[in-house]
Amino acid sequence: MWKSGEKLNMYPNYGLIFDTETHKLHGDIIEAGALDFTFEDGELKIGYEHDLGRFKPSEPIGLGAMAVHHIFDEDLKDCKPYTEFKIPKKLNTRYLIGHNIDYDVQAMNRTGFDFNAQMSQPFESICTLAMARRLWPKLESHSLSALAYHVSENKRHTRVYLKEAHSAINDCYTTFEILKAIVKTAGLKDMEDLSAFAYNSRTPTHIFNGEYKGYAITDLPDQVLDDLITKSDGFLLSSLRTESFRRSELPF
């Protein structure tokens, strides 16, 4: 185990779980936390938690966001503005992990903080949501709490813990438990394995929202496939187009 305060990026199998709370959907960071870990002998080993602070947003907290994280404007009245957010240099890592990590990275970018600027190489975003969808596509929900129950060996203990959910640090711990289950289920041995699996999981095999939720992309009727291609973007669009191309190559 490394010592607190060491330069953790010297460990090739070191990763950092990262989570934020925002003042509204796609809003300013008002709370952030991180949890570091390593792969040792093919298993995840938890490290130290890092409270990255609370911050004052550019406008009042929305009621929808408040109902999720229970942070009030008065809780932040003496906090620094969100534009002063940063991840300390001692936490530099090639691997930044989170549940729907793109949301948290976008929130970080909106503060003006450039994580890559203080690193020797660009970081990789590893999404536990995408990996969970790849491994367990038929689950009713892939939310953080739902997956925590799915992978839990003691649901009563998990229930007690989730009652304190939706603080950045607590969500980091929940994400770590889900990540452990992903590593075990997928048979991943180190961060390179995890990175490769996470990359491949970005392109979905199933539909996870809307009328055709739960359908494998390969099972979609031709007309539905064509319709979804006109309405989709990003990784889903890539998967849909790949399937469309595959069908065009089949014998009549």
In short:
This protein is α/β, with parallel strands linked by helices and 252 residues long.
Residues in β-strands, percent: 15-25%
Query: How are strands sequenced across the largest beta sheet?
Result: 4-3-2-1-5-6
Order of helices and strands: EEEHEEHEHHHHHHH
State the major sheet. Answer: 6 strands, mixed
Oligomeric composition of the shown chains:
single chain
Mean pLDDT: 91
Strand pairing plus helix content: what structural class?
Answer: alpha/beta
What integer value in Å does the Rg equal?
19 Å
Indicate the low-confidence ranges by residue numbers.
1-8
Helices, by number, come to 9
Share in helix: 25-40%
Shape: globular
Terminal CA distance: 59 Å
Number of strand elements: 6
Give your account of this protein's structure.
The chain is an alpha/beta fold. Helices cover 38% and strands 18% of the residues. The chain has a six-stranded mixed sheet. Strand 5 (95-98), helix 2 (101-110) and strand 6 (124-127) form a beta-alpha-beta unit. The longest helix is centred in the last third of the chain and has 19 residues, at 168-186. Mean pLDDT is 91; it is low at 1-8.
Brief descriptors of the model:
18% strand, single chain, disordered N terminus, 6 strands, six-stranded mixed beta sheet, alpha/beta, 9 helices
